[in-house]
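Handout, tutorial session.
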Amino acid sequence: MENQRKTALITGGTSGIGKELAKLFAKDNYNLIIVARDQAELDSTKNELQKFGITVKTIAKDLSDMEQAKTLCSDVTEKVDVLVNDAGQGVYGLFKDNELEKELGIIHLNICATVILTKHFVQQMAERGEGKILNLGSVAGKLPGPWQAVYHATKAFVLSFTTAIREELKDSGITFTALMPGATATDFFNKAGMQDSQIAQNKEALSDPEDVAKEGYEALMAGKDRVIAGWKNSLEVHAANLMPDSAVAHTMYEQQKPVNQQ
């Protein structure tokens, strides 16, 4: 039975949407490889997931470091049936004020690590003629985002990239799915330093990461190209498509500005 199990590799698998996705794979009898920066968090998550009777391998890597992202590829010797590029981060503030290195780190993590891992594992999947890849996009990828200009731009890349390679490999047996959540009750806002933003303060508007993961998992297993998690987020994206980008940017500016700024 152990040899018959499929394996899913999940980056950012110790918290938020990534951890909820890991639970769903575990419930479906997948062995797991979970990747995150903190070994203690990896160990804790491993203990939780092993209750499902599956094998869990942990790998501690900082995927904003390109050499560590590349090393991860060589560290994984198992056959990976599903790749989930969940690891991602934002930085909050006006572009002119934010630290350049922080923003470059976000580009490395959200874009470059996704490209590195996808390149490596899609080549293996193509040789076998099967595989699944889930990339964590965001509704942010469809909306210009003042106060998070770089983060929103990285998610636009992820969505475009996923859609393009899905078309390139449509006859390969590999499926590509982009999960597009909106604001979700995870540690994202804390890590991005945006607890005081209008959007983070509106707790009732935040999605549950368990619900987001379920929508993404079901879309992945169905082979869908993308899923916008939550009907309100879907409505926002469709409404934005009817508006000039400048108007969308102004709306996002108001939603994301600090609560103490009039």
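The second record follows below. Compare its token runs with those of the first.
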Amino acid sequence: MEKRDLELIQKYIFNDPELKHCMEEHEEFERQLAEMNRRLYLTPEEEVERKRIQKLKLAGRDRIEAILAKYRSQSARG
């Protein structure tokens, strides 16, 4: 994430439960993927799970971006 995104997250995370939830979920997906990536071999089922987690992580990232865009537009207006 960009520095300004991280700054916005730090500014609003404690007042925005949805942003907080999305960030916690994003970090958990990151942790799970890092664990899977450390393995030399994944079973076919684990590979499917890895792909599923990647898709969920991307969807969560899109949601975080939408929330941040809302805050950016608010700060630009006022």
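Points raised in discussion: The two ends are 25 Å apart (CA to CA).
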